[in-house]
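Follow-up to my post from last week.
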Amino acid sequence: MSGLREVVLSTTPTAEAIADLRLGDIVYLDGLMYTAREGVYMRALEGQANIPMELPSQSAANFHCSPAARINPDGTFDMGAVTATASFRFAKWLPEWMAKTGAKLIVGKGGMTSKDYKEYFVPNGAVYLSTVGYGTGALLGRGVEKVEAVHWNEELGLAQAMWVLKCRRMGPFIVASDFNGDCLFERENAKIAGNIERLYEGTKPATLKRYGESDDRSDEVI
Amino acid sequence: MIPINLIQATAETLMDKAAIEIPQDYLMGLEEAAKTEDGDLSSFVLKAMLKNYEAAKEDRRAMCGDTGVPRWFVKMGNDASVEGGMIALEAALRRATANATNGVPLRPNRVHPLWRTDHNNNVGIGAPEIEYGFEPSGDWIDLITVHKGGLFGSDYRMLFPSDGVQGIKRFYLDSLMAFGKRGLACQPAIIGIGLGGSKDICMTLGKRASTLRIVGSRNADPKIAEMEDEFKELGNSIGMGAMGFVGKNMVIDCNIEVGYCHTGGMPMSVHAFCLSSRRAVARIYPDGRVEHRTDPDWFTPYQCRETVDWDPMQEAVE
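User reply:
Got it. Predicted complex:
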């Protein structure tokens, strides 16, 4: 525990602040963060809709999230819990999204591969922050000072809409990629891989095979 | 006659409790895990989760932003009757689901699989699922809601008798390895294993094993109970903890449930009920009493009967 470093980071961070982050650092965020996942990506990138925010000047932090929240009849918002959804599914859109919006912090669940990091995170000066747990939704909800706006709710629905959150010491998050494009999760996988042979000793491969199946347990499924 | 208004009001309370309050049995399991965890990152994660449960209860907000897909298990005593009948019951559960989605609030997760239509209330075609069980005596109705997360951590495979326990172990480990990395399964989890049944029932058994049995419970068959202990230990010996970080807590408990299957096969499913194991239970009596509890108590002797007829004398013994 004591080995972990805590950092408070702006959602419009300087290149120096990002370069200073190390894998496994615990991060708390200050500033505006927006949610964008497949609905927003498809509308903005494939549908060429105008993004209803000034990016990255207002925010360089893209949260892969749908909140547990409601829009009241008077137009105000109630934000309950917020947690991330798994990010690897969005690799398809992220390079274009980063180029278009200047996003520097991709915040989500589970991270991406080191290949993703090296190919388009590092050239764009971006890093990946993972939520913790996953499911510190109530703690993260406390870090939302207010909901600034909800864009594209009519077109995409509450879960896919673009929520703009004003964060105050929102966290914890964990730094899962760095400026070298190294991946925290792959580092941990490699440490665990040493146990695989002992673990599987004596177990039997299934009689009925599956197409395309890997028997290499050091592989990932994402 | 059980008043329909009481059913709906109780159902709304249960939706709220499931989303906000971690069940005591899971909490104790996680506290135990946090004590033994020595990986620095995975230990940080477990401590953050324990703080999160407190924050959720204090603020009365959902534990997790992904509030899962709400579903209902209804169990009725043979002498129970519901005001307005079963159609009224289903309407009440659908109304409670919609009201709580807006009220707590929950995330409106349920969409049409093709058109992605979202009614923003977690209600739609086949949603929430409502499943039924019956007990030989009693005039009560049990409402159980489970809001399980949906995307990762579950898998199914048709094994064969020749695969044996070593084949079962391998598929169990494969599921933990595949979905434990990067913490996709949101472990440490209650792992449910379904063995037997037909394909669909095999999935159902595993899902119920993870969601309808509490941490610390054991299968009534002593040999299966032994397997549960062994599998729990096996899962925790991977060296993987929360979020797939190095650690020793992957499985808070392992529950196995079985059903008779085709003589040639041994179908198996694995399910993970996550760090936000959302379940809540209440029993409602015709006189208006409502008793809340956390144990669904689903796998009763009657539910697990092997015989053609149920002998009431046997029930007395059980």
